[in-house]
Amino acid sequence: MPSSVLTLNEKQRKFAWGYLFSGGHGAEAARFAGYSDASEACKVRAHGLLQRDDINAALRDLSTKYLFSLAPKAIIRLGELLDDRKHHKHFDAIRLTMGVTYFPEKQQVEHHHTGSVQVNHTDAALEALAYLKSMDVPREKLIQQFGHSGLERYERMLEERNAKRGMKVIEHDGN
């Protein structure tokens, strides 16, 4: 028996076994263990036992042992499926066998990348201003777009940029 089961008294051990093999029916497991069921007390007893860490540890140990004991049966049934080429699960059996032995399925990993683009808003504003001026947009509309002080600032910067590039700025008085 697993060590966590050994820490339980006889009734608790029987409850753990009964719970596992009754399919998780607590009251049935409590009756199997010998607890009194007067006024359906086994329901209450089972609930209390299932709240205990030592009972849960024992159930975990017993479940693990039982699951491992089923492996030979599972291997036999898997072999039967592999032998029956017409069975609708034949391919699944092949895939499972290959996946857990020597040829695991390839797994696709998705990568999602995020980033940001640093936009130089000043350069964008200067380009927009240059374009709007080339289209002879009235000054009132430029002021609406850039603001009065912003327009003057961008116009100075545009003049400086164009001077560096050796370009002549065409002034428009809006009339």
Structural class: mainly alpha
Write down the secondary-structure element order: HHHHHHHHH
Extended strand count: 0
- Cα radius of gyration in angstroms: 40 Å
What does the largest sheet look like?
A: none
Head-to-tail CA distance between termini: 101 Å
In helices, the fraction of residues equals 55-70%
Describe the structure.
The structure is a single chain. 11% of the residues are buried. This protein has nine helices and no strands. It has 175 residues and is mostly helical. Helix 5 (53-83) packs across helix 6 and helix 7 (121-134) crosses helix 9 (148-165). The protein has two domains: 3-100, no CATH class; 121-165, no CATH class. The N and C termini lie far apart (101 Å). Helices cover 66% and strands 0% of the residues. The mean pLDDT is 86.
Q: What key attributes describe this structure?
A:
175 residues; mainly alpha; 2 domains; 9 helices; 66% helix; elongated
Describe how the helices and strands are arranged.
Elements: H1 3-6, H2 10-21, H3 26-33, H4 41-50, H5 53-83, H6 90-100, H7 121-134, H8 139-146, H9 148-165
Structure described in brief:
With 175 residues, the protein is an all-alpha fold.
